[in-house]
């Protein structure tokens, strides 16, 4: 299935980034979101690569077709992430509460110091681990539409505190809290981030899909 949207508002406003094609594969089904200007490319991609949309052959072909379109509008592809698709995990309500540590609790916007890059906002549901009065690990929901039932979780643990189960504890506590509100948490990580994938699986998440965003940036 392919859904199309107009790219005109982005070009008119000189948006710093465009995503002419977004490819999803969930439960074995392929879904594509594409700009109207690349309709023929999207249809040909679906015809050629529906069975293996994240293969190098498929992504090389996509880059070859989309690069001229992006360049003609003043946008250029970063080659570093050419083959980086993402894995999507969904919380499965496993009985593993023993993984939630006593140092994990819901963050209410208190002034504890944090050396994390992760932005903590009182408006976003967040669980943290505090050691010696400092936040050393945190998991929070990304900003999302309240009408959606699958909020996405982001997690970070300070380097020197990794391997102690803090990230798993925070992710699991957050997933449990969301489940109590009738929401099923999602977790996303790069195909290259095996450690993050293992964390999700240990916290009771199962892989349910994959996606790839073809992004280009204004020069």
How would you describe this structure to a colleague?
With 219 residues, the chain is α+β, with helices and mostly antiparallel strands. The protein has five helices and twelve strands. Strands 1, 2, 3, 4, 5, 6, 7, 8, 9, 10, 11 and 12 form a twelve-stranded mixed sheet that branches.
Brief summary of the model shown:
This protein has 219 residues and is an alpha+beta fold. It is 26% helix and 33% strand. The protein has five helices and twelve strands.
Second-tier CATH architecture of the largest domain: 3-Layer(aba) Sandwich
- CATH homologous superfamily heading of the largest domain: Gcn5-related N-acetyltransferase (GNAT)
Find the structural class using helix and strand composition: alpha+beta
Largest sheet, described in full? 12 strands, mixed
Rg, Cα atoms, Å: 20 Å
Please provide the ordered H/E string of secondary-structure elements: EHEEHHEEEEEEEHEHE
CATH class category label of the largest domain: Alpha Beta
Report the CATH topology name of the largest domain: Aminopeptidase
Low-confidence stretches: none
Principal-axes shape call: elongated
Q: Termini separation (Å)?
A: 32 Å
Task: Please count the helical segments.
Answer: 5
- How large a portion of the residues is in β-strands, by DSSP E? 25-35%
- Compute the average pLDDT: 88
């Amino acid at each position: 299935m392919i859904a199309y949207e107009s790219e005109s508002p982005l070009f008119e406003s000189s948006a710093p980034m465009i995503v002419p094609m977004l490819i999803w594969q969930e439960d074995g089904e392929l879904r594509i979101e594409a700009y109207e200007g690349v309709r023929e490319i999207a249809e040909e991609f679906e015809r050629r690569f529906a069975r293996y949309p994240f293969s190098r052959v498929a992504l090389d072909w996509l880059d070859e077709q989309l690069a001229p379109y992006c360049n003609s509008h003043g946008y250029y592809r970063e080659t570093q992430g050419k083959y980086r698709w993402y894995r999507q995990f969904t919380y499965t309500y496993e009985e593993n509460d023993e993984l939630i540590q006593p140092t994990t609790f819901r963050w209410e916007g208190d002034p504890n110091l944090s050396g994390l890059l992760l932005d903590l906002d009182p408006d976003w549901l967040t669980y943290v681990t505090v050691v010696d009065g400092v936040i050393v690990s945190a998991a929070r929901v990304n900003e999302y539409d309240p009408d959606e039932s699958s909020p996405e979780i982001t997690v970070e643990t300070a380097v020197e505190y990794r391997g102690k189960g803090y990230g798993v504890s925070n992710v699991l506590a957050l997933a449990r809290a969301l489940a109590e509100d009738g929401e099923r948490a999602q977790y996303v990580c790069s195909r290259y981030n095996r450690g993050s994938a293992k964390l999700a699986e240990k916290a009771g998440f199962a892989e349910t899909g994959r996606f790839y965003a073809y992004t280009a940036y204004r020069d």
